[in-house]
Amino acid sequence: MSSDEEPKIVNDCCCFGTRVPGNNNDSVGGTLLSGNDHGTRPSEHLPLPPPFRRGLGGGSDIRSLTQHFNQRGDGTDPWVFVPESNIAELSTAEHPGTATIRQAGRGQDIKGILREPIGIGDYPLPWEFQMSLVQNPMAVLLGVGDTRQNNTAIGLNVALTFSDPSTWPADRTQRPPDTHDFQLLVIHLGNTGEFGAGLPQFAPYRTPETHLVWGRGDLAPELNGDWKIPYYFQGAMPDAGPASPQARFRFQLTGPETFAVGIKFNDWNEHEMRWVDCSRFGKITGVWEIGPIFSCDRWIPDVLCKELPVLHPEIKDPPEPIAPNAIHEFTVDYCAFLPCAPTAPFESFSDEFDVPGFLSWRGFQLPFQAETWSHPGQLTVTLLGASQGTWLFPMTVTEIDLTAYPPPWEWEVCFTPPAEPAPWNLYFTHRLIDAQGKWKTYWKPGVMYDPGTKLARFTNDPFGPSSFDSQIEDYFCRCGQDPAQLKPWVKVAMVFDPEPPQEVLQARPLRMLYQMLDKRHLRMGFRGSEDGPWWLSEVMDVTEVMGGDIGQLGETCLGIVNGRHFSLPGGMPMYAQYRFDYLRFRHYLTAGVEKRLSASDTRPNRTISGMTEEV
User: Quick check: 566 and 463 in contact, CB under 8 A?
Assistant: First the structure.
């Protein structure tokens, strides 16, 4: 598709909670998704965000290329798997929620690729790709399938081209000139020893098997070889790292000369990322291939095993490595594309938590567990009861720059806290940074519940002196700030008048709203039901605190704290759970009055949701 050709609209509704456009232009007049609104329905005069285009090779929203394989038997578009000659079966019905691939035994690697390549200008940079592969449990964990060895290598394949797009072949299986690739593989060699001899000469532990994370290719030679990501044994079974049941890969295209690639093995962990400058090849003109790759040729015995160190030279006549056995199927969980700040649509940071097992674009700090499968349609964060802090945020926007995302905008979170008598809280935590980039203060507005008084209340800061305090000066210095300029901390004091009633603040679930009206005015709100009224705070003017405009919000995330380390009462039980229905970012307001806040703004005042209070 050429850059000036209108992309195909697959259907009218847009994914990830965006609006349904009334037509194909960007004019005002669309409606919100029925039954999946972003809060209260705005008036018809309130400007809505432009519709996201959908369609391969020309759309502005790269998320249209995502595939979760959740529709039983519904195909894999826009993904195809090649070569067809080595694919015996491809099914999204055999194990719903995955694509299951069986090879035909022809000795050719199998790749998943998009129907069309991605040109460097097709989508705003930066963007990222995340993928989850499920290791074959019979081969990797049980050692069943081949009585000798169960050797596997699965992973991420990226082929970047630096060639003139006019030279790109029509055949997607043929690469253009000046194309270079990198593959990050999770490898299993040998077997458990219970059903065969395995490959004891390479094994670091007591069973004749080895698990590795390995890079190969000519795109980034500095990333080739052993990534030295460890695993360990628990009883008779290997665990963690490359011995984990799932491997989650991440690729970021950060510019025409740079990219990053990484891996992790739990949704709530961070990726191990490596950064690459590939300018020695010129400028990237396209992503020719990106997606899963499954080793089916003789690379393992003929190349890899000849590069590995022999850890047990005392073994006489060790077994010869063999190629992967065609009996083992391959499983793809998801292939997801995500736009990143500062070019991503503000609404793209939202999440309805409605795809089981998909959390890779969320970042977490210190939770015991976070997942979307135990309570479908919700993110469940489970705590361990100890005094701790827990934070979660979109990895694609850890800071909100107001030059990229000018107000008005808002966030909304809907959550169910732990049950009585647990002391609970939830707050939006962020740094307030001025227009010159100077960090002014932290602000942590939210709600907290005290089981002693059985009351919930709004708070500007949910905790007092904490265990962080003894290290805070060093932290400021590491962030390039003079700690003397931040002491004493300027307290930001938002006020509710009147306070929201207890039936709102103790609603299950509770909805909490943060609004930035302009660069100097902020507001919070709560409501207890989807169709109930918002209880809004007074508008807070931060001009004095900031010395002018807010320029940026840093470390934007949701936080939960409990126990003595934060000067809070104990009582949080083991395995207490917070359940989140959604986190919604909107580049418009859905509650209160959006009013002229500067002399240069000539728009009329607008009433939303029938509320008439003045800003």
Answer: yes
Exposed/middle/buried for residue 232 (C-beta within 10 Å: 0-12, 13-18, 19+): exposed
Rounded CA-CA distance 149/193 in Å is 9
Residue 339's pLDDT is what? 94
Quote the CA–CA distance of 360 and 358 in Å, as a whole number.
6
CATH for 346-608, among 3.30.1220.10, 2.102.10.10, 3.40.190.150, 2.60.120.200?
Answer: 2.60.120.200
Q: Is 226 helix (H, G, I), strand (E, B) or coil?
A: strand
Rounded CA-CA distance 392/380 in Å is 12
Are 212 and 204 in contact by the 8 Å Cβ rule? The answer is no
CA proximity to 20, closest of 11, 8, 7, 30: 30
- What does DSSP say about strands 409-416 and 577-586: parallel, antiparallel, or unpaired? antiparallel
Q: At 468, list the tokens.
A: 């962080």
pLDDT of residue 388: 84
Task: Provide the whole-model pTM.
Answer: 0.84
What is the rounded distance in angstroms from the CA atom of residue 365 to the CA atom of residue 257? 31
Q: Please name the residue that has the structure tokens 């939830």.
A: 426
What's the pLDDT at 505? 98
Q: Judge residue 407's burial from the number of C-beta atoms within 10 Å of its C-beta, 0-12 exposed, 13-18 middle, 19 or more buried.
A: buried
User: Can you tell me whether residue 231 is helix, strand or coil?
Assistant: coil
pLDDT score at 477: 67
Q: Taking a C-beta distance cutoff of 8 angstroms, is the pair 593, 611 a contact?
A: yes
> How big is the chain, counted in residues?
615
Average pLDDT, consecutive stretches of 10 residues, N- to C-terminus, the chain (615 residues):
31 25 25 25 30 39 93 88 96 92 96 97 96 90 77 97 97 96 97 81 90 97 96 83 94 97 90 96 98 97 96 93 93 95 92 87 77 93 87 84 96 95 93 91 93 95 72 65 58 90 97 97 96 94 94 92 86 92 94 55 41 36
* Cβ pair 499, 458 in contact under 8 A: yes
Site of tokens 């990830």: 16
Q: Taking the domains of the chain in order of start, what are their residue ranges?
A: 109-339, 346-608
Provide the residue type at 563 as one letter: G
| Model pLDDT, residue 7 | 28
The residue behind tokens 């959006």 is 594
Please, which residues have CB within 8 angstroms of residue 302's CB and are 6 or more apart in sequence?
none
Using alpha carbons, list the distances in angstroms from residue 557 to 266, 398, 445: 20, 7, 11
End-to-end CA distance of the chain: 47
Task: Judge whether 357 and 97 are in contact, CB under 8 Å.
Answer: yes
Cis upstream peptide for 407 (omega within 30°):
no
Residue 290: phi, psi to the nearest 5?
Answer: -155, 135
- Rounded to the nearest 5°, which phi and psi values hold at 132? -120, 130
- Cα 478 to chain centroid, rounded: 26
